Fold Cation diffusion facilitator family transporter.
Amino acid sequence: MSGGHSHPPPGHAGGRHRWRLAVSFGLVASFFGVELVAGIMSQSLALLSDAGHMAADVVTLGAALLATRIAARPDTTGRRTFGSYRAEIFASGLAVLVMIAVSIYIVIAAIGRMGSTPEVGSTAMFVVGAIGLVINVIALLLLRGGAGESLNVKGAYLEVVADTLGSIGVIVAAVLITVTGEAVWDTVIALAIGAFVLLRALRLGREVLAVLGQHAPAGMVPDTVMEALTAVDGVEEVHDLHLWTLTSGMDVATAHLVVRDESDEVLAQATALLRDQFGIAHATLQVETSDSKHCQGVDW
């Protein structure tokens, strides 16, 4: 049996975009208190729901930022053979839970307001909503660059997307209340925001569960990988192929290669193929000769 190993990239995707998370966290955290006070004083459910989004942003961005630190730290126990990279996926899962909780709170609060006619301060709503929109747009522009590479950053990005929509909703609600004189628009907009947040949370949740369930990486077809390995010169058969994502930007593979003659050249070609063609960050390959009677080390 031989092992072929391709080494992880110098920095995982989340770590490369840590500075984006840090700046966004500072911006959002600084504005959260202002919006919360304004929401309480104006009695605006839309503004309070947006403040709830801001609180969720602070928690999500903070967790994402902490996760990138944990993922990068060296293992001192000798037991974390895969490192601590999964911390970023758990942070993404936390983002999902926070978004679901916020959306449920908004819906419950909106239902509770039905039939009542609260005095809503539309001017405060408009001003605070506009400031929040500016801050959210800046955070969005910062996080967008890393959302396509890191599930951790994507979780934070989607949370800020939801909050940006919340800020827009606050502004729209303020305008409608001013024009129509009807406070019900505050509740309607809040319900719409809650529904949107819930849908985005469920979509991200599916991606998180796919990683934790060790599904094949998104966009990677196991049969295609197997066919490519089988086409390597000297390989007769490929079996026990496993593909999964450790964390964003770090896909892992294991496989057994049946070869005519055991050769380091076959191993090198197969490892290079997985790295260059499929972006596999780490591959472990077991090589067996075609005259072997039994596959070594396979129980399932």
